[in-house]
Amino acid sequence: MQISAQISRFHGAGTPFEVCKVPVAPNPDNILVRVSLATICGSDLHTISGRRGAETPCVLGHEAVGTIAAPTHFRTPTGKPLREGERVTWSLMASCGTCDYCVNRSLPQKCDTLFKYGHARSEGSTTLSGGFAEYIQLHPGTAIYHIPDTMTDAEAVPVNCAFATVVNGLAAIGTQPNEAAVIHGAGMLGIYAACYLREQGYDPVAIVDINEGRLQIAKRFGATHTFNPDKMSIEEIDAALKGLTNGRGVDLGVEVSGVTSGLPNLITWLAVGGRCLTLGYVYPNAHAAVDAHHLVTKCVTLRGVHNYHYTALGTALRFVAEYRSRYPFAELIGHTYPLADINTAFEHAMRQEAHRIAITPGE
Ligand SMILES: [Zn+2]
Ligand SMILES: [Zn+2]
After folding, report:
1. What are the tens digits of pLDDT across the range 53-72?
2. Over 90: is that where the pLDDT of 25 sits?
3. What span, in angstroms and rounded, lies between the C-alpha atoms of 288 and 311?
């Protein structure tokens, strides 16, 4: 069987995507997946605007779901066989399972021989390595999960980047029922953090953003209080948060805005003994100035976490399956474009009107 794939190629910041056809070379070591839906993540926008580098030409896109397109011997992380025609999602990266990071440090996302989808140079065996293409070839060491039949592609698609990252970060910093949380940033990660913390028993779950529309959406995802720093000073928000916590301040701060004021704001709002998780600074030179005196005198725990251990993807998928009737996950996906219109899709995503703009490569 000789098949070809329509793919998009990124050639560098300021250059339009090229959409072209390439032959699909069968590779028994990989698993071939036909991509049904892929979303434009904030980090894709960092890449196309040049804030962070990429090897070019590159097939971008790492938030994606699809259907297994050829027989395979691959299995899920829990050992279930994977069959042609089944709907799947997969970890952002492939890792070796044998190096020090994989075995001893529980950081497979930092594997010595890490391969990240949507980041590699598109050539040879990595020609089909991103989501903005009709097919993707997944490598050994990728955690592939079935998408539950009850879950739509739209509900599942951002889970393998945004939600799995949130689940992993919150597991790393630790959560406790009846604590107070404040989330800095009501983008995709902030929305997922809000509903996840609510279901972990957090109250209040406050969220901070300068975008009123996003704050309104956050309320539908479990946020109990919203604050807009364009309308209130940092000190006024501090006073409001102390009013919600018997004067203590918040126990857990979550930085997902990526703006450098986020970290110092959260340190200001934390209680004595508070913990701060930062996930948002995925671009270089994100210098944030904090009053380190507060870190010391409030005995603050600060934790940075990048990407995720693949088991977090399984947890995030189960969460969406369980709570899909309580939270309108599918509504986070805005307009959907065919792959041929990828340049228009990125222009739309740059306007930040919706949490995610989607592309349907396999149509
Ligand atoms: Zn992403
Ligand atoms: Zn490894």
Report:
1. 889 999 999 999 999 999 99
2. no
3. 31
Query: Which ligand minimizes its atom distance to the CA of 107?
Result: 2
What pTM value is reported for the model?
0.95
The encoded tokens of residue 25 equal 């070379």
CA 116 to ligand 1 centroid distance, Å: 11
Counting ligands in written order, which one lies closest to the CA of residue 114? Answer: 2
Separation between Cα atoms, residue 172 and residue 10, nearest integer Å? 34
319 within domain boundaries: no
3-class secondary structure, 268: helix
CATH of the domain at 52: 3.90.180.10
| Same domain as 196, residue 124 | no
Residue 12 has pLDDT above 80, yes or no: yes
| Domain shared by 15 and 44, yes or no | yes
Ligand 2 centre and the CA of 319: distance in Å?
Answer: 27
Same domain? 289 vs 342? no
Closest C-alpha to 332, from 306, 307, 351, 352: 352
Ligand lying closest to the C-alpha of residue 111:
2
| Domain match, 39 and 129 both | yes
Q: How far is the CA of 180 from the CAs of 4, 224, 270, in angstroms?
A: 52, 10, 10
The closest ligand to the CA of 63 turns out to be 1
Does 158 fall in a domain? no
